[in-house]
């Protein structure tokens, strides 16, 4: 069921090998109370209690995410055994996802044949898709351009005890997370507004989702002067992508809006080199929207959802937008540019305004918007701001069930003063750097009117400097799982 060039190339199957000696590595779970699962008991008996001895001597432990790789004599069956610590309590969805991903990732340092993941017996049925999704995302990393691949993919991963339905669902979710990650990990010379838009077009060419692309001429006709201003300094013109997945009958749509700055140099308010290094990741919000829309299409989710990507490259040249410029946005509100590096909110101003035309029942935007959000919450936590607490509660519930970390920041009226401009309606920075994540959200609030809206600042968690046991450094695909869960309801 290979569906796009981003899909993992490993063969995934649901059955167990008849001949266990054909299994290179068998992955099994061990809880921290050390009670052996049925499969571990069988292997223990075949080896005259070897596993019990290892457990009793404290060599084999079930503490959460502890990994023990054991060589296995040929009469017992599989060539190697990887025992994964399941910890104390029943595995949650995020445990299932992260433990499997960490287990698989630990095996990709050398070529392997068939890997059998027998974790289904230790994890509840409704979590089985997360096992598969974790395995799939473990197989994708940031080393897209190494001559020698750094992850050595196995020939097959089998998931005995997982239904075909859960297997396909998990594979789809994993593929869609990977696809968002891959777009973010691509260098900016490869992925720029036009190529991003073309990629989306191809991705949905055989799907019911319709894809509309506004080029620079259409953007001008549509009065999207804010998007055009941010892209004005680049030789790569901006784009707006609209993906419509309308499978939910008469209900008003949910809209997802992503910041797609394919490279953020800061513009004339130029970033120092160190701060610019990772700025290919500044389209992660848009990539997340594409990933979620793709999952909706492939899973055939019966809801109305429209995804928008505001795409521009923020560059320096004689045609760049300038400090002091005043832009009349598509909505009619005027914005004064006091820092060209606060460009994401400028792109989103017009993108949100277009989204509003579709009379949505809820708007969720995703953006690598502010360094200030990382100062407030650290690298791993999404900042959430809203004009509708009950909508945010729904998204919080979805995030917590998927184990993605999200925390609300306040939107007191008190902050409104900070985005007022002396010459235009609003200005694109607050007064000084304090509360920068919130003043950015206050700016955006001007473009959603009273529609229920949640803004997710993913500047920290979208892109990682360091690897974790369950995933490579680089793009993370954060919020794909949460949004999918929320939309599925
Ligand atoms: N894309 C950046 C925010 C960012 C920083 C994302 C680090 C990921 C990692 C955004 O466009 C930006 O430059 N924001 C400025 C805003 C400031 C000029 C008001 C910032 O955070 O410094
Ligand atoms: Mn910027
Ligand atoms: Zn930016």
Notes on the protein architecture:
- By secondary structure, this protein is α/β, with parallel strands linked by helices.
- It is 33% helix and 20% strand.
- The chain has 15 helices and 19 strands.
- It binds ligand BES, manganese (II) ion and zinc ion.
- Manganese (II) ion (MN) is lined by residues 264, 266, 341, 343.
Keyword list:
single chain; 489 residues; alpha/beta; Leucine Aminopeptidase, subunit E, domain 1; Aminopeptidase; eight-stranded mixed beta sheet; six-stranded mixed beta sheet; 15 helices; 20% strand; elongated; binds ligand BES; binds manganese (II) ion; binds zinc ion
Q: What is the CATH level 1 assignment of the largest domain?
A: Alpha Beta
Query: Could you give me the name of the CATH homologous superfamily of the largest domain?
Result: Zn peptidases
What is the SS-derived class? alpha/beta
Calculate the mean pLDDT score and round it: 96
> What are the low-pLDDT stretches, counting only 5+ consecutive residues below 50?
none
Count of beta strands: 19
Indicate the radius of gyration in whole angstroms. Answer: 24 Å
Total helices: the number is 15
Quick description:
By secondary structure, the protein is of the alpha/beta class. The protein has helices at residues 38-46, 50-56, 93-105, 128-138, 164-185, 193-203, 216-221, 225-231, 273-276, 284-299, 344-356, 371-377, 389-402, 436-445, 480-488; strands at residues 11-13, 25-31, 67-71, 80-87, 114-118, 156-158, 210-214, 239-246, 254-264, 304-314, 326-328, 334-336, 362-367, 382-386, 406-408, 426-427, 453-457, 463-464, 474-475.
